[in-house]
Amino acid sequence: MAALQQTPISFRSKLPPPITSAATTFPKTLSFSLTRRFPVLRRNTGARMSASAASSYAVALADLAKSNNTLEATSADVEKIDKVFSDPSVFSFFMNPTIEEEKKRKMIDELAESMNLLPHMANFLNILIDSRRIDLINDVTKEFERVYNGMTETELAVTVTDPSLVAGFTVRYGNSGSKLIDMSVKKQLEEIAAQLDLSDIPVNV
Prior knowledge:
The chain has 8 helices and 3 strands, in the order αααααααβββα. The protein has 2 domains: about 45-150, Peroxidase, domain 1, CATH 1.10.520.20; about 155-195, no CATH class. The protein is elongated. Helix content is about 50%, strand content about 5%. α3 (about 70-85) packs antiparallel against α7 (about 135-150). By secondary structure, it is mainly alpha-helical. One of its GO terms (cellular component) is membrane.
C-alpha cells in the first residue's frame, strides 16, 4: 500500500496540438463616434429572449439616434432596411452560415451606399452580423417603430373598410383606437334621418 502511494502518476494528453494558421481572421472591430455601445447579448433560441434582445437593440439604436439628433432620419433608414430584409432571398443570404461574415459585411456596405444609409445605421447592421444576431433584424425594426412612436408620441391610425358604410370612410386613431373620425355617407344619412324626425323643423311657405 505504501509503495502505491509513493509511485508518481502522470497523464499524457492524446489530443493533437492546436492548429495555428496565419490566415485565421477575426471580425473587425466597429466603433462609433459616440461612446454609446450596443448591448452584447448571448444567443438563445427562446422566443422571450429573442424578443428581449430585439427590444434591447431597438432601444439602443433609438437612443443613439436621439442623442445624435438623427431620430427622424434613422426611422426612415429603418423603414428601408425593413423592406430590404423582407425579401426572402436577402434574408437567406445573411442567414446562410456557409457565407463568410466578411462577405456579409461587404454586402451591408454596398446596401448602405446604394440606399444612402446613415453611418451609424450601417455600423448597427454590421454589429448584428458580428454578434450573429442578424436573424433579429425584422423584430428589431418592429421594436424600433414602437420605441420611436413612444419617443415622438406618435399615434397610429387604422383605416377600416366596411361595405355597410355605403361610401366614404372612417378612421380610428389613438393607441387604443378609442378615437373615431366618421366621414361615411351612412353617418350623413343617419344625421338627415334624425333631423326629419324632429317636429320643430321650420317650414318656409
